[in-house]
Amino acid sequence: MDIDRSTVLVGILLATGVALVALPIAVPADVPDNRVEFYVEANWSDYSGQTNLVYATLNESARGVFDEARRATPETINRSIATAPESVTPPPDSIELYNVQYEGAFYLLQGRHLTSEADFLTQQAPRFGSMAVGFLLVVGAAYWRFEV
């Protein structure tokens, strides 16, 4: 069984082209999940424009976030949307400020909703480029097969 070199080349071009088109479709872009960033600041006051919370009435997960953020001050802590307490999670792309009364003092609890999207230059453009090269390879294989 003698296989023509032209047939092998067309097969390789076709398989490579289909793979370059199918791979970006089959494997999604690597985009991190949405997160909530929490920050606590001591020596705060009872500001009327902010929601007041009392530490004792917070649910266990909200207390855990407050305690961890208070220990991490001046740094922030991050939680994925799935694990962040719903009672102190702000709406998408927004920041919520809470006055938390804890042991007779007021603390600021800031929750900031962070959304992540695929970056065009580093995540989308290479995928489009791969698909375009794959399409050109498939067209080249078809041209080679039927015109040459």
Description of the molecule:
It is built from three helices and five strands, in the order H-E-E-H-E-E-E-H. The chain has a five-stranded mixed sheet with strand order 2-4-5-1-3. The model has no long low-confidence stretch (mean pLDDT 87). Strand 4 (95-102) and strand 5 (105-114) form a beta hairpin. Helix 1 packs antiparallel against helix 3. It has 148 residues and is an alpha+beta fold.
Main pleated-sheet profile: 5 strands, mixed
With strands numbered from the N-terminus, the spatial order across the biggest sheet is: 2-4-5-1-3
* Gap between N and C termini: 22 Å
Total beta strand runs: 5
Helical fraction equals: 40-55%
Question: Per DSSP, what share of the residues sits in E-state strands of 2 or more residues?
Answer: 15-25%
- Bulk shape: rod-shaped
What are the low-pLDDT stretches, counting only 5+ consecutive residues below 50? none
Series of secondary-structure elements, N-terminal to C-terminal? HEEHEEEH
Secondary-structure class: alpha+beta
What's the alpha carbon Rg, rounded to whole Å?
Answer: 27 Å
* SS element count, helices: 3
